[in-house]
Design a protein that fits this description.
The structure is a homodimer. Chain A has about 160 residues and is α+β, with helices and mostly antiparallel strands. In chain A, the strands form 2 sheets. In chain A, strands 4-3-5 form a 3-stranded mixed β-sheet. The first copy, chain A, binds a DNA duplex (30 and 30 nucleotides) through α2 and α4.
DNA sequence: CTTGTATTGAAAACGAATTTCATTTACAAT
DNA sequence: ATTGTAAATGAAATTCGTTTTCAATACAAG
C-alpha cells in the first residue's frame, strides 16, 4: 500500500534526482501538494504552506510548482472557476472527476474512448489525437449530505 | 440554410431585444465573433475588430463579450494554452473539437454519454451531473497537408 | 431638433505572474 | 567540522490581463 507520505518522499527524491537541492521551502510545498485531494493554485499553496513555513515567498511557490510540473509529478487542471490549478499527476491517461460541492478530485480510468473517437473521426473528418474529459458531480459524502437534507426538508 | 451573416443579425437583434443600443463598436465586435471558427480572447478580438473600427476600446470588448455570454450567444472555452477564449455557443450540449494546427474549432454532438457516466458512478460512488469533453486533433485540411508533407519527405 | 440615458474610451487601479537582484543556504570537497 | 560555490531564496520592481472610474459621446425616444 502506497501512503501519501510515501508520495512526499518520492517527490523529494525526484527533485533531488533532477539536480535540485532539498530545502525547507520545497519540503513545505511538496508536503502540501503531494497530499492534497483538491486542485490548488499557487496563491492557495502559498497561504497553506506558510502554516508550516512562514517565511515562504510566493515566487518560490511558482518556481517549485513549475519544476514539479516539468517532472511530471504535478498536473495542471482547468476548472470552471479557475484555470491554474494543480493536482498530483495521474499515471497514464485518466479522466478527472470533481465534486462541485467540496472540491474533492479523483481520477477515473477511461475505458471505451477509442470507439467514441472513431465515431467523431468518421463524422467530422478530423484526425483525433487527444482528448480531455472532466466529469462534475457530487462525491459520495456530499451526495449523502444532500440526500439527508432533502429528507429533512420533506419531513 | 443559415449563413454567418444571419447569425450577425440574430445577435444584434438579441442585443437590442435585451435593451442594448446598437452602436458601431458593438457591430464590429459582433460581426467578428459571430463569424469566426476560432476561439478568440478579448485581446485578439480587440486587435482584429480595430481593423473595421479603429477607435474601439478594449474595455468595450470586455463589456460586449460579457453581455454576449450572458445572452447565451457566446460560450467560454478552455484550451491548453489559454482559458479565456470564446466561441459562438452550441445549441444544446455539444462536444468540442479543436484542430491543434490551425485552431479551427467545431462542435460534435455527443452520443452515448449516459453509459459512460453510469459506469463512472458505479465505479466511484460519485453522482455525475455534468461533464466537459474536448477532443484535439487535425482538421481535414491540416490532416491532408500533413499527409502530403510526409509523402514528399518519403520521396 | 432636443433631451435623457446608455455607452464609450482614456486613464487609473487592481491582481496574478514574472523578472531582478542581493542575500542566504545546501551540499560537495576538503 | 569547515569552507567554497553554485543553487535557491524572498523582497521589490515589473509586466500583463482585467476591472473600475469618470467625463465625454452618441443612440433613440419624444
Amino acid at each position: 500500500m502506497k501512503s501519501d507520505s510515501d508520495r512526499v518522499d518520492l517527490w523529494l527524491e525526484s527533485l533531488q534526482a533532477s539536480g535540485c537541492r532539498l530545502t525547507a521551502p520545497r519540503r513545505a510545498i511538496v508536503t502540501l501538494l503531494a497530499e492534497t485531494p483538491h486542485a490548488l493554485g499557487p496563491i492557495e499553496v502559498y497561504d497553506l504552506a506558510r502554516a508550516s513555513y512562514p517565511r515562504l515567498g510566493l515566487v518560490t511557490v511558482y518556481r517549485t510548482m513549475e519544476k514539479l510540473e516539468e517532472l511530471g509529478l504535478l498536473q495542471r487542471v482547468h476548472l470552471p472557476d479557475g484555470c491554474h490549478r494543480y493536482l498530483p499527476a495521474a499515471q497514464g491517461h485518466q479522466h478527472l472527476l470533481l465534486c462541485t460541492d467540496c472540491g474533492l478530485m479523483r481520477y477515473v480510468s477511461g475505458d471505451d474512448f477509442k470507439r467514441l473517437a472513431d465515431n467523431v473521426s468518421q463524422k467530422t473528418g478530423f484526425e483525433v489525437t487527444d482528448h480531455w474529459l472532466q466529469l462534475f458531480g457530487l462525491c459520495p459524502d456530499c451526495s449523502a449530505v444532500h440526500k439527508t437534507r432533502a429528507d429533512s426538508a420533506a419531513a
